[in-house]
Design a protein that fits this description.
alpha/beta, Rossmann fold, 2 domains, 6-stranded parallel beta sheet, binds guanine
Length: 284
């Protein structure tokens, strides 16, 4: 029987810590961190995520500025808005929700954000700093995974960590974060041969492939720590992760549920990154 890692509870604690710090800043210096959230189009999942991010910001006492742009928005108009936010002294963090509509070049938008305000950690400058081992802003979801491991007392140094998924948002930055903490890392993907053989070696297994319940019980070592980053909607409407929970849970020592595992941590880490960005820019 695994110990269930309660992401809701851990994230709530972090949000409260951040809220207390923001309140202190407001009382002592009269300034608050400001986050601009930009959503292009009307993707329903993105609308839900963005709404949660904005609410969390407000609850923490931050300034939250929302920009909902129509799906036909031209790239140059989005770039102009990003630039305006780069120059706005009340805004310390900028988040452009992904995915963007196909006619907009995602990399051009990511590169337009001032790296100091890049609270998503997606800018090549921030990815480069992480690769170098001297990170500034780090991507929220992998940072949330690291925080879950740390707050659950799971040792990382010297462990065999296997990540399934090589996205820029999760798999790649998480591999670098685990490497910085002295794990031995393996990144699996769609072309990996004998996936179960590789995942079966993991002391820490992270599923971030976006494929419903693909990690089965026989792919996991007895006593492994299993972190599920997946969020998949099944045809019957159920929300499941990338891990077949009922098969894997009996073998794992620790496991994160979906929902209520990594998801809430992403938002908590966005708040932390925004607070850090604020401190960097204001010296507060
Ligand atoms: N889409 C899915 N995850 C994320 C994220 O962490 N940040 C942004 N901006 N878009 C996303």
């Amino acid at each position: 029987m695994a110990s269930i890692i309660d992401g809701n509870k851990i994230a709530k604690g972090i949000r409260e810590e951040i809220g207390a710090q923001a309140l202190k800043l407001k009382q002592e210096k009269g300034i608050v961190p400001g986050l601009a959230v930009i959503l292009v189009g009307d993707d329903p999942a993105s609308q839900i995520y963005v709404g949660r991010k904005e609410r969390a910001c407000e609850e923490a006492g931050f300034l939250s500025r929302h920009f909902g742009l129509p799906s036909q928005t031209q790239e140059k108009d989005l770039l102009r808005l990003v630039d305006e936010m780069n120059r706005d002294p009340a805004i310390h963090g900028i988040l452009v929700q992904l995915p963007l509509p196909g006619h907009i070049r995602t990399e051009a938008v990511i590169e337009a954000v001032d790296p100091r305000k890049d609270v998503d950690g997606f800018h090549p400058y921030n990815m480069g700093r992480l690769l170098e081992g001297n990170p500034l802003h780090r991507a929220c979801t992998p940072l949330g995974v690291m925080e879950l491991l740390d707050r659950s007392g799971i040792p990382i140094e010297g462990k065999e960590a296997v990540i399934v998924g090589r996205s820029n948002i999760v798999g790649k930055p998480l591999a670098l974060m685990l490497l910085l903490r002295h794990a031995t890392i393996t990144v699996c993907h769609t072309r990996t041969r004998d996936l179960g053989g590789v995942t079966g070696r993991a002391d820490i297994l992270v599923a971030a492939a976006g494929k419903a319940e693909m990690i089965r019980g026989d792919m996991v070592k007895e006593g492994a720590v299993v972190v599920d980053v997946g969020v998949n909607r099944l045809p019957d409407g159920r929300l499941v992760g990338d891990v077949a929970f009922s098969e894997v849970e009996p073998k794992a020592s620790h496991i994160t549920p979906v929902p209520g595992g990594v998801g809430p941590m992403t938002i908590a880490m966005l708040l932390r990154n925004t607070l850090n960005a604020f401190r960097l820019q204001t010296g507060a």
